[in-house]
Amino acid sequence: MAEPLEVTLCMGSSCFARGNNLLLADLEDVIARNAWRDRVRLAGCRCLNLCGGGPNLKIDGRLRQNLDIAAVGELLGGLLAAPGAAGSERTR
Ligand code: FES
Fold first, then answer.
1. Does residue 77 have a pLDDT over 50?
2. pLDDT of res. 87
3. pTM score of the predicted model
4. 30-53 as b/e, with b when 16 or more CB fall inside 10 Å?
5. 12 Cβ closer than 6 Å to some ligand 1 atom
6. Whose CA, among 33, 49, 52, 84, lies 20 to 30 Å from 92?
7. Does the Cβ of 57 fall within 6 Å of ligand 1?
8. How much is the average pLDDT of 37-41?
9. Contact 31, 42 (CB under 8 A)
10. Total number of domains constituting the chain
11. Ligand 1 centre distance from Cα of residue 38 (Å)
């Protein structure tokens, strides 16, 4: 099984106030509803010093900015559906 996707939310004060406070709870819900607990690893980080484009998050190290839960959920769904995706059985 491939490593899970790493989703890291900036928990700095600016990103937190711009929406990551809500995005964290929504992401936990989306992960649970889609049974992605083994496929997505959720973490937080300190300010990335990119506050102006926030709220910021990284997916497998790639910066994503100003996304709402619908956009993040769609992005994760696409990444997890790809052949060889994180946590898929197809990589064996
Ligand atoms: S608070 Fe997120 S980049 Fe600064």
1. yes
2. 65
3. 0.88
4. bbeeeebeebbbbeeeeebeebee
5. yes
6. 33
7. no
8. 95
9. yes
10. 1
11. 27
Higher pLDDT: 61 or 86? It is: 61
Q: How far apart are CA 46 and CA 43, in angstroms?
A: 11
- Ligand 1 centre and the CA of 13: distance in Å? 7
Out of 21, 46, 49, 58, give the residue to mutate to test ligand 1, the one with the largest number of ligand atoms within 8 Å of its CB. Answer: 49
% of the chain residues with pLDDT over 70:
92
45 lines ligand 1 (CB under 6 A): no
What CATH number does residue 10 fall under? 3.40.30.10
> What number of H helices and E strands is found in the chain?
3, 4
What is the model's pLDDT at position 17? Answer: 95
